[in-house]
Amino acid sequence: MVEALEQPRASFAGHTLETPWTALQLAYFVGTAMWTYLTQPFTFILPGFETAELEPWQENGEQQRRLRVVWPGYLASLNTVLTIYVGDDGLIRREDYDVEIMGGSGGAHYMSGYTRIAGIMLPTGHRILPRTPQGRALTEPLLVSIDLSEIAFA
Question: So where are the chain's domains?
Fold first, then answer.
């Protein structure tokens, strides 16, 4: 073994948005984020998840339903509370969260470019922008940009 990070989430204690990460912290962050992005909303039916519908939200001329989701402590997550925004077509448009491992920085994660893989609709575009405490996404800076392609279930 070359390196180990026994308590990856705990290793971020005291971090802010400006705190540099180790290579293992980056691996934990990316792995946890991508697992989360690709498995929700399916994970929400696992034991211990708590959900509650919130008031609808207007954005880009569309009224979206909102769902508050609290993650159980037994699953790795970068944040324990999410707000999911769902369009009329039943697809997730956005999710808001405070990245707890980075001092609670608010993010608005937009999902787009849905494609059908083995009958399941998956977003191929992910854009994360800063979010105000009032819930409005800022247009810049773009914090994260992910584009997925060649997706398959094995």
Answer: 21-53+62-147
Give CA–CA dist 38/46, Å, rounded. Answer: 15
Residue 16 has pLDDT above 80, yes or no: no
Neighbours of 41 (CB within 10 A): 15
**Residue 42 gets which letter from DSSP?**
G
Q: What is the pLDDT of residues 99-113, one digit of tens each?
A: 877 777 899 999 999
Tell me how far apart the alpha carbons of residues 100 and 78 are, in angstroms, rounded to a whole number: 6
For residue 137, give Cα distances in angstroms to 29, 62, 69, 101, 132. Answer: 22, 15, 19, 20, 6
Pairing of strands 92-99, 81-86: antiparallel
Q: Using an 8 Å Cβ cutoff, are 29 and 21 in contact?
A: yes
- 120-129 contacts, C-beta under 8 A, 24 or more apart: 120/153, 121/91, 122/38, 122/148, 122/151, 123/37, 123/91, 123/92, 123/148, 124/148, 124/149, 124/151, 126/37
In the structure encoding, which two tokens stand for residue 86, read together?
């769902």
Report the C-alpha gap between 75 and 42 in whole angstroms: 14
Whole-prediction pTM value? 0.89
